[in-house]
Write a structure and sequence with these properties.
Radius of gyration: 17 Å
Number of domains: 1
Structural class: alpha/beta
Shape: globular
Number of helices: 5
Length: about 210
Amino acid sequence: MLPMATDTAPLTALALNCTLSPSPAESSTQVLAQQVLDALARHGVSGSQVRVVDHDVRPGVEKDMGDGDEWPAIREQVMEADILVLATPTWMGQHTSVAQRVLERLDAELSETDDEGRLLTFGKVALAVVVGNEDGAHHISAVLFQALNDVGFTVPANGVTYWNGEAMHTVDYKDLDETPEATASATATAATNAAHLARLLRLDGYPAV
């Protein structure tokens, strides 16, 4: 049995909102991502949210793609956080091109290691958030889990929360009168497990390669 985490030092989380809608447009993805951050806050985790489409994140698989690329500043926030929340809406049954851009930029972390050969992301936890009024949440979360784990993040048990609206209807998550019980429960579980796992990794991280 894993030991119980006893470290009470503050943890931090960063939510990357991969909506296609630039600010100040309303975003269902932002609403659910913020609910995850609020749930994490109940476990002593402070968090913030970045709407990626508001920034000039260049295509590529390097840490810095040159003058004007705004990914390095976002990456700095990712590396400072204990928990990454990657949030995306569903379009045509898939994650957005913005989310794919984030995954491609995170590929650069495969070349970044500490003095003991471990990826710099090895001590970090990742959660997935998916919204949409069409099916696709299970497929998208599977893609995100694999990609995030591949570049060194650890995904906790039940590490996703999502909402799928009724097929071929136009109701958005942000327009719901109240949060569905199933989604609220998934959000609470994901946040609880992520905070617990992040503290475990801080107390006893992965061994040297």
